[in-house]
Write a structure and sequence with these properties.
Distance between the termini of chain B: 36 Å
Oligomer: heterodimer
Largest interface: A-B, 27 and 25 residues
Order of helices and strands of chain A: EEEEEEEEEEE
Largest sheet of chain B: 7 strands, mixed
Helix content of chain B: under 10%
Structural class of chain A: mainly beta
Strand content of chain B: over 45%
Strand content of chain A: over 45%
Helix content of chain A: under 10%
Distance between the termini of chain A: 36 Å
Largest sheet of chain A: 6 strands, mixed
Number of strands of chain A: 11
Chain lengths: 111, 115
């Protein structure tokens, strides 16, 4: 079982819909990142959070440390939001210093 | 202020050749991370470096792979005697601070194809 699980793996929605992508993790963490990757493109960091909620434009990220769960929401979705959204965690305690990633959620927003 | 710069964007190598991937961190950043994204798989941590030091290389294969981040110049990920299984996208990220909760900025990646 992966230490970081995302759902759904694939999501197709109509323009304007409210989108929710979920991330669950099984390890202790000190922070969680949400990343965006466009086809053939680089990776953009959307949020880094360790508690509560953050909002940037139409994007909202929440985290519940007790439940080991985070969600990424997109309001008023648009075709340009089509991308892979990746959840990544920073493990607490010892171990590798890099991020541990989920496999990503492929989002397609149809006009 | 340029972001994290990786070059080349695309690299084709024949089996047995060497691949050198470069990463220039954001200005002022002294912490660099390398990640690999295999086709149809998620990203995996490879190595974490600070200037002139390898801090954590637990994710890097023990053979053929090496990384450096010299005092001057970019960080280099070097793959010797490449094999088809090395074909992947390699991403570099840099951060300003040394804490694990410091935000990291990613480059565009280098897509390596071994033929």
């Amino acid at each position: 079982k992966n230490e970081v699980e995302q759902s759904p793996q694939n999501l197709t929605a109509q323009e304007g819909e409210f989108i929710t992508i979920n991330c669950s993790y099984s390890v202790g963490i000190s922070a969680l990142h949400w990343l965006q990757q466009h086809p053939g493109g680089g990776i953009v960091s959307l949020f880094m959070l360790s508690s509560g909620k953050k909002k940037h434009g139409r994007l909202i990220a929440t985290i519940n440390i007790q439940e080991k769960h985070s969600s990424l929401h997109i309001t008023a979705s648009h075709p340009r939001d089509s991308a892979v959204y990746i959840c990544a965690v920073v493990r607490s305690g010892g171990g590798a210093d890099g991020l541990t990633f989920g496999k990503g959620t492929h989002l397609i927003i149809q006009p | 202020n340029a972001g994290v710069m990786q070059n080349p964007r695309h690299l084709v190598r024949r089996r047995g050749q060497e691949a050198r991937l470069r990463c220039s961190p954001m200005k002022g950043h002294s912490h660099v991370y390398w990640y690999r994204q295999l086709p149809e798989e998620g990203l995996k941590f490879m190595v974490y470096l600070q200037k002139e030091n390898i801090i954590d290389e637990s994710g890097m294969p023990k053979e053929r792979f090496s990384a450096e981040f010299p005092k001057e110049g970019p960080s280099i990920l070097r793959i010797q005697q490449v094999v088809r299984g090395d074909s992947a996208a390699y991403f570099c990220a840099s951060s300003l601070g040394q804490g694990r909760n410091t935000e990291a900025f990613f480059g565009q990646g280098t897509r390596l194809t071994v033929v």
